[in-house]
Request: fold
Amino acid sequence: MFVSRLTLGAAVLVTFTLTACSDGGGSKITSQGTRTAAASSRHSEGAEHAMLGNDDLNWGPAPAVLPAGAQIAVVQGDPGAAGKIFTLRLRFPNGYVLAPHTHPEEEHVTVLTGTFLAGMGENFSNDALVAIQAGGFMTMPQNQAHFARTTGITEVQVHGIGPFQLTYVHPEDDPRNQ
Reply:
């Protein structure tokens, strides 16, 4: 029971992250712009080595594939690059909802602040949500439909192998179609 709840929560987190990192026209998440001078001095490009503090993150609006209100910061790599490791952070306002969606690759999510509620299935259900508190972790399997909601301002860190993409189960839920 606990493992299935963790898997559900991870799927939701990954979905948020994938959506936040996608480009404006598609569902693929791409790398953000340049880092500040301070961040560049402590960051090594590539999967082998990265050192960043919270103040070094370059936050910006999430891509259009995510509902308005989310913010994203790419920590490592390029989420849109196939076969490459990436790490990103997503910040969501209180009550943020992510409709059912899937990702082509497994996603791994760590809740840093707030409460991330995730559920599995093709239709959103508050009854199916499992609350993952700060410090919690989940893994969402590839191509498994999941959804999420937040309680309080919630920040998650998502990592995996790219490309990080989000496909809504119901096309009418895609914010780019509204």
Notes: Residues 75 and 169 are 28 Å apart (CA to CA). The domain at 2-177 is CATH 2.60.120.10 (Jelly Rolls). The chain has one domain: 2-177.
